[in-house]
TrEMBL record:
Pfam families: Thioredoxin_8. One of its GO terms (biological process) is photoreceptor cell maintenance. This is NXNL1 protein. The lineage of its organism: Eukaryota, Metazoa, Chordata, Craniata, Vertebrata. One of its GO terms (cellular component) is mitochondrion. It comes from Phaetusa simplex (large-billed tern). Residues 1-157 form the Thioredoxin domain. The gene is Nxnl1.
Length: 206
């Protein structure tokens, strides 16, 4: 996953902003499911979704809800109009979030790479950078933290120690549906990878 950010920097969402070094990024992203959250603090739909995403993230990573933080990291890719707007939004979000620095052209590269045209959008990636879900906004709204297990299995990061409180009553029934979840979360290709694949197969670009 760190390869996606090679030569780039991410800002840590802390009391005092700190730029993550490449070594720190490697540790932060290694062996984790990565969420790229494309949004804006001024977008009405984003303002509705942001509290849901915040709660989702906290339920998976905060010791108040889970004994051990799940294998999850989130990077905010903003469409905020000013640096002050981006900073104000991040101050209301969990401190574990990372962010692409304001004004960094890399934000546009990420939008193009993952075909993001509207916000809010949450792209879910495996540790190797492959796409698990192109936009998980509706899934997060509908399922909440429970959908993380599906992504975890698709990313082949099975952590038997991670269980939500309500999971203990569902263990037997869940085993029946596991094969269907694995089929549903077949890793997606990015628009760039699909285009490259067509060229390698000798197909003409449209």
């Amino acid at each position: 996953m760190a390869a996606l950010f090679t030569g780039k920097v991410l800002t840590g969402n802390r009391e005092r902003d700190e730029v993550e070094t490449e070594r720190e990024l490697g540790r932060a992203l290694e062996n984790k499911v990565l969420l790229l959250y494309f949004g804006s603090g001024q977008c009405p739909r984003c303002r509705q979704f942001a509290p849901i995403l915040k709660d989702f993230f906290l339920h998976l990573t905060d010791e108040f809800y889970v004994e051990r933080a799940s294998q999850l990291v989130l990077v905010y890719v903003s469409r905020d109009e000013t640096e002050e707007q981006q900073s104000a939004f991040l101050r209301s979000m969990p401190k574990r979030w990372l962010a692409v620095p304001f004004g960094d052209a890399f934000k546009r590269d990420l939008e193009l790479r993952f075909g993001v045209s509207e916000v809010p959008a949450v792209v879910v990636l495996r540790p190797d950078g492959k796409v698990i879900v192109g936009n998980a906004v509706d899934e997060i709204r509908r399922m909440g933290p429970a959908c993380f297990r599906n992504w975890q299995e698709a990313a082949e990061l099975v952590d038997r120690n991670f269980l939500l409180a309500e999971d203990f009553d569902e263990l037997s029934r869940r085993s029946i549906t596991d094969p269907f979840r694995r089929l549903k979360y077949k890793v997606e290709k990015t628009p760039e990878e699909k285009k490259k694949g067509r060229k390698e197969d000798g197909e003409e670009s449209p």
